[in-house]
Amino acid sequence: MARVTDEVPLTLEGEPPKTLGVLDQGALWANLGVSLLGFSGALFLLNPLGDAPLSLAAALVATVVGSLIGTAMVGLSAVPGTRTGQPAMVLLRGLFGAKISYVPTVLNIVQMLGWGAFELWVIAKAATAIFGGVPYQVWVIAAGVLTTALTIWPLGAVRILRRYVTIGVIVSMLWFTWFFLTEAPAPTGGSWTAFAPAVDYVIALSVSWVPVAADFARHSRSGRAAFTGVVGGYTLAQVACLGLGVYAVAIAGADAVLADSTAVFNPFVAVPVGALFFGILVLRETDQSFANVYSTTVSLQNLMPRMDRRVISAAIGVLTVAIALVVDVTSYGAFLGVIGAVFVPMFAVLAVDYFVLGGSRRWNTAEDAPARWSMLVPWALGFVAYWLTTSTPTIAAWDGFWASARELIGFTRQSWMNGALGAAVVAAIVTVLAGLLTSGSRRSAAR
């Protein structure tokens, strides 16, 4: 067991240990990049619009491009956590002020609970594919107990991932890759028409970890180690995961996966010794639920800084299990779109303010950090830009609203437009303008 001094402090008032090197970060993010949800998610990658399938080449290029863009965002969002020693939602005190930071904190808590429930659901479904006689509810509860235990010793969990789990995951992925490439029919046909929404989808997969990155990077030995671990580990793993998923979908049949996303697990179990290697991936999936529950815990500490994180983790673990027992996963794609729309522009605002406008020299994460209402403007405009430029469908009524908004302002979305990039660019430009106006006002006042 790790020494107490090597673990995360129980409250925000404790000093965070700097014990994670680049290998620790790389192993953590590589494991997070391999997701059982990603295998079925390959269906969204191949046909994000539902009526314009991508060619295999287009899908693979979209995976690489989207992963690099998304992980670069996640990696940059990790660096301020390393420098300040603060988790992600506490960092937002410096961007928005302490009180306003509660708004994105609540949004993050909601999305992390959703992700945690998704992960318990997929673990239980995957385990059922191996051991069909055990009820779904038993697997959810078992995965929830293991997840909660990991959140009690989070840095110890990261070290276990590096030393033991990562090797098993690499061997398992290579095993499945060998059989899929030699036995599975490669997807044929398709086009590049839906390339932009496919990139949007992959970016959303990656950028959903932006609100988590600093929670672990605060324990990194350097910003370079945190950034390298995120970009290198997650990019390689996500590209491999989605690429493997493309072939798994081809074997299972797109219609079968569309009707039941867990059908994509069957090809993995069917290969020789597949149950053993797929079982390793199922067990590893608990790092996903662990990261989500732990991030929910430290996000709540932004609201309750002196609350013992172990108590919060236990409560969140129970709540996540309860949600997973009744969760509806049919809105998975829509869920990712909403996440991207909220956190991509927020990241852009933070990155520009912190790295470009000199925020790193004055970043105030105190409980009484003054409100910065002006920073809400670029965030909001970036959110709007996302929905004006994205082509990824979510919920019919919501998509209809933005279609009407485009018509009202006379804006025509072009096929090459990308929602995530549109949101980031608009938010970044408006943040720069706001910074220039603020600095100009200060100079005038000084005279």
- Shape type: globular
Order of helices and strands: HHHHHHHHHHHHHHHHHHH
Which parts are unreliable, with pLDDT below 50 for 5 consecutive residues or more? none
Q: What is the count of helical runs?
A: 19
Percent helix: over 70%
CATH architecture: Orthogonal Bundle
CATH classification, class level: Mainly Alpha
SSE-based structural type: mainly alpha
Characterize the main sheet.
none
Considering the protein shown, what is the CATH homologous superfamily?
Answer: Hydantoin permease
Into which percentage range does the β-strand content fall?
Answer: under 5%
Beginning-to-end CA distance, first to last residue: 60 Å
Radius of gyration, rounded?
A: 21 Å
Count all strands and give the number. Answer: 0
Task: Provide the domain count.
Answer: 1
The averaged pLDDT comes out at: 88
CATH fold field value: Hydantoin permease
InterPro entries: CodB (IPR030191), Pur-cyt_permease (IPR001248)
Keywords: Membrane, Transmembrane, Transmembrane helix
Organism: Nonomuraea cypriaca
Main location: membrane
